[in-house]
Specification:
This protein has 287 residues and is α/β, with parallel strands linked by helices. 36% of the residues lie in helices and 21% in strands. It folds into two domains: 178 residues, HUPs (Rossmann fold, 3-Layer(aba) Sandwich), CATH 3.40.50.620; 94 residues, 2-Layer Sandwich (Pantoate--beta-alanine Ligase, Chain: A,domain 2). The protein has a six-stranded parallel β-sheet with strand order 1-4-3-2-5-6, with helices on both faces. The longest helix has 16 residues. Bound molecules: pantoate (PAF). The site of pantoate has 10 residues, from β2 and α6.
Length: 287
């Protein structure tokens, strides 16, 4: 494939499998980048990594109905396959796997699901009931369909990454999960497809989220109370940002940390800016 051509599109499971079987028979390794489309530089960083670690790169584009709650933005989630192909053009992607819901769920939502367990109901999962079961179920399906050597995910969705890694371990899946650092805009906001919902005023307000994480990082050498106070202080400075949760968890277990904990911690933020819900995260070291 020449670097500047649009990637091919596979819309069927059979089509993708036969392409990848042929690639594997020729000795190629495969990397999968699972996405819901509306691709931006953050996704391109995942693609770049995929290209470095495998011979064949597949980007899946599927807005998975199973991971959206009834009041969430499934209907309005941006969908433009041609724009996504154009974004990927020149980035060495071999094919986009863009199945319809009929292809992924021919009999409607599947009865067999992967459960995210207790952690699936905490932090992000507390605000989005059933979300992580939907994510794990579709990721398991995508890994079974493509059987990639490596699948690449973004650090911004830290709880998703933790749960996918645990699923792969728990269910003895053969795919290696690689994680790529969050890409940020010049103003610090983590790139996200949902940033497209923000008008200028809300976009300005949304910067409070990375600012709060930065404040948390700066306070880390003064301990957990100082971190929480620093983050909350920044978040309370904006009337347009409604905090859903700020949490500090152990990176190795994703459990909330005790008051006397010292060591590496992951800070998680979810907040609503106008009608847009955004998440962000950073690693810090609690003294
Ligand atoms: O992170 C996402 O875009 C989605 O949750 C994923 C992993 C593609 C599953 O639908």
């Amino acid at each position: 494939m020449s670097a500047s051509t649009l990637p091919d599109v596979e819309t069927t499971i059979a089509g993708l499998r036969s392409r990848l079987d042929a690639a594997r028979a020729a000795g190629s390794t495969v990397a999968l980048v699972p996405t819901m489309g509306s691709l931006h530089e953050g996704h391109l960083a995942l693609v770049e990594h995929a290209r470095e670690v495998a011979d064949v790169v597949i980007v899946s584009v599927f807005v998975n109905p199973m991971q959206f709650g009834p009041t969430e933005d499934f209907e309005r989630y941006p969908r433009d396959l041609e724009a996504d192909r154009a974004t990927l053009s020149g980035h060495g992607v071999d094919a986009v796997f863009a199945p319809g819901a009929d292809e992924m769920y021919p009999s409607g939502p599947v009865a067999t699901r992967v459960s995210a367990g207790n952690l699936g109901g905490m932090h992000e999962g507390r605000s989005r009931a059933g979300h992580f079961d939907g994510v794990l179920t579709v990721v398991a399906k995508l890994l079974n369909i493509a059987q990639p050597t490596i699948a690449v995910f973004g650090e911004k969705d830290a709880q998703q990454v933790f749960l996918v890694q645990r699923m792969v371990r728990d269910l003895d899946m053969r795919t290696r999960i690689d994680v790529v650092e969050t890409v940020r805009a010049d103003d610090g906001l983590a790139l996200s497809s949902r940033n497209a919902y923000l008008d200028e005023r809300y976009r300005r307000a949304a910067r409070t989220i990375p600012d709060a994480l930065e404040a948390a990082e700066s306070a880390a050498d003064r301990g957990i109370d100082a971190v929480i106070a620093a983050a909350q202080g920044v978040l309370m400075g904006s009337n347009e940002v409604e905090l859903d949760y700020f949490a500090l968890v152990r990176p190795d277990t994703f459990q909330s940390i005790d008051d006397d904990y010292h060591g590496p911690a992951r800070a998680l933020i979810a907040a609503r800016v106008g009608t847009t819900r955004l998440i962000d995260t950073t690693l810090l070291h609690l003294a």
